[in-house]
Amino acid sequence: MGLDIYVGSLTRYHAGDWETILQRTARETDMRVQIVRANPDPADKITDEAVINQAVRQWMQGLSIGLAKHMNAPLEWDERAESPYFTDKPDWVGYAGVVLHAACHEHPTLPRPEKATSHWDTDPAWQASTAPDFRSRFGQLLTPEYWLPVAFPFTFKAVDVVGNEVTFGSSTTLLQQLVTLNTETFQGTDDDLARWKYEGAGNQGSFEKSAQFGLAMFIHHAGLSVQHKLPMKLDY
Prior knowledge:
Blueprint: E1 4-7, H1 10-15, H2 21-28, H3 49-66, E2 86-88, H4 91-106, H5 124-129, H6 139-142, E3 146-148, E4 156-159, E5 165-170, H7 171-184, H8 190-199, H9 207-228, E6 232-235
Parallel strand pairs: 3-5
Antiparallel strand pairs: 1-2, 1-6, 3-6, 4-5
């Protein structure tokens, strides 16, 4: 089971009107591909975009009411079914690379991986950065799997549109934290980030390469989320 990033309206996402990079490549090259998700769609899944859009907007309103005392304005973003979407595949190695890079930067005395890995949650640095008594400077990266294109400094747990409890963050704040991480560590230029994203991570490569790939991938998509006012989420 792989990991993709999706940036787009939740209406389009839940209507299934989008393709992963692997699906698009398979379609363009007449290859066969089967996508297996952690939470498969039910047989009676609703696909009517109008019905889905109404459900998403009601969910957005409820979320906005629940966060009202923490926000300066109601939550709002582009939920049109026809809005653009963007997707790519950092896979778990790229995700673990950037997450552990941030955690290791916060805890330089803890061991830093040498090889690319997809296991971040057992790493001492990640555990230290996500400990209840530690206030991470990169909290928007370390635990959320949804990011809303609205500026706020915190993360929170809530049910998503289909009723799963997940952690949400702000793609605006995420982008700021990613830029800070790059500035304080790799100091990659725009050309560097584009090259790192193109080169990929490689499951057998070095940890540094996986961290650069993951950082470039997440900076790119967080930027698209902010620019187009679209939610960003992990898809697996």
